[in-house]
Amino acid sequence: MSSEVVRPAAKARKAHGERKRRSILEAAVDIASAEGLEGLTIGRLASEMGMSKSGLFAHFGSKEDLQLATVEEARNVFIREVIRPAFLAEQGLARLWKLCDIWLVYVRGGVFRGGCFFAAAAAEFDSRPGPVRDRIAEIMKEWLATLRRAVVEAQEAGQLDRKVDPTQLAFEFNALELGANWAFQLYGDRKAFARARDAILERLCRHATKSGATSLPVQKGKPK
Amino acid sequence: MSSEVVRPAAKARKAHGERKRRSILEAAVDIASAEGLEGLTIGRLASEMGMSKSGLFAHFGSKEDLQLATVEEARNVFIREVIRPAFLAEQGLARLWKLCDIWLVYVRGGVFRGGCFFAAAAAEFDSRPGPVRDRIAEIMKEWLATLRRAVVEAQEAGQLDRKVDPTQLAFEFNALELGANWAFQLYGDRKAFARARDAILERLCRHATKSGATSLPVQKGKPK
């Protein structure tokens, strides 16, 4: 097939275009986390990147295209920085704990200027119907489903009390993480991450079976 | 003193002006809860109220004046709808529970189009330094301090375990409420309010002393 015969110059051009697009989107996620997706105009981004507006239009035809591509980029970063490292842990309670803990470490590390991209984007777009809002809602549902599935797997592995409602626990853990992000963004209160961590760990320890407890770190202030 | 001798016409004019200002601010809080405080331009508000822009300028000299007045109005509504009714309950565990429960009922009732005004405003302004951000942060601190004080009072009344950290509990309850507001705004998920309610009530019941437990409603699914 002709598509397999790619000329080296064309291949290099394509790779360069993809690197450029990726670096634009990284800047876009950072801007949007702090100033909102609505603040992310092609003009604003062009000035941040030292590019012409027409150069940016070659990558993104409209503001909505740019917003949607930025949301996908933020999802890629989240998968790379939180989901994949957590999935290195064994399926069950260890993985559930890692999903929560790595998320907190990641946001605490200030990877984006405005904290958690999706917390900011959800608050901004929840009252603005359209494809951007729908995509943000879908991605946050994936996250809640990932948390919930990890709870179910921990129960199936006999590590977590089966009486615990997985949807309820996923709701609570997500809320505690949003609450920590909120306190950090508003007050620069880094202790909020430790508060969310303590609250999540306390629940997991309380509901863990004897065999499950060995997958969790020792709680602060509790006898070893 | 001359200021005590107010002519009836001037008095009526002043009262009319205050009513008008109040009705403008009520519309402003509603718009800002859904479209953000940055979306709250004098032009947008004038069109919503069927007023001229110059008429609105008579009430608010600048966009920032309008934003600050809108934040104060939202605070007044919150005090009227949540704090005062909760303070009718007896000091201690009953009041702590009412603060949480009335907040959830209030946001679930859809008092503003965009849900909790302060959750939206905090997410929007947390990365925008200035007087609007500072005032939002101050008001949210009042709320956290009110929750915290209610925990301490419940402990002093011998109704709640003194080993509970009041700041931690206030953080968790606020996070659960923000989480419910978030799920409702993004998914129209009214069940989220019941989830937050269950989580808060479960914690209070677990930490209540025998005398404190009588101040709390019976937990769903638990024997009476």
**Could you describe the largest sheet of chain A, including whether it forms a barrel?**
none
CATH topology of chain A: Tetracycline Repressor, domain 2
**Which protein chains make the most extensive interface, counting residues with beta carbons within 8 Å of the other chain's beta carbons?**
A-B, 40 and 40 residues
Quaternary structure = homodimer
Residues in helix, % of chain A: over 70%
How many β-strand runs of chain A?
A: 0
Give the SSE string of chain A: HHHHHHHHHH
Secondary structure category of chain A: mainly alpha
Strand content of chain A: under 5%
Account of the 3D structure:
2 copies of one chain form a homodimer. Chain A is mostly helical. Chain A has one domain (7-213): Orthogonal Bundle (Tetracycline Repressor, domain 2). Chain A is 72% helix and 0% strand. In chain A, helix 6 (117-125) crosses helix 7 (131-156). The termini of chain A are far apart. The interface between A and B is large, with 40 and 40 residues.
The gist of it:
Two copies of one chain form a homodimer. With 224 residues, the first copy, chain A, is an all-alpha fold. Chain A has helices at residues 8-35, 42-49, 53-59, 63-87, 93-108, 117-125, 131-156, 166-187, 191-207, 210-213.
Write the layout of secondary structure elements.
The structure is a homodimer of 224-residue chains.
Chain A: H1 8-35, H2 42-49, H3 53-59, H4 63-87, H5 93-108, H6 117-125, H7 131-156, H8 166-187, H9 191-207, H10 210-213
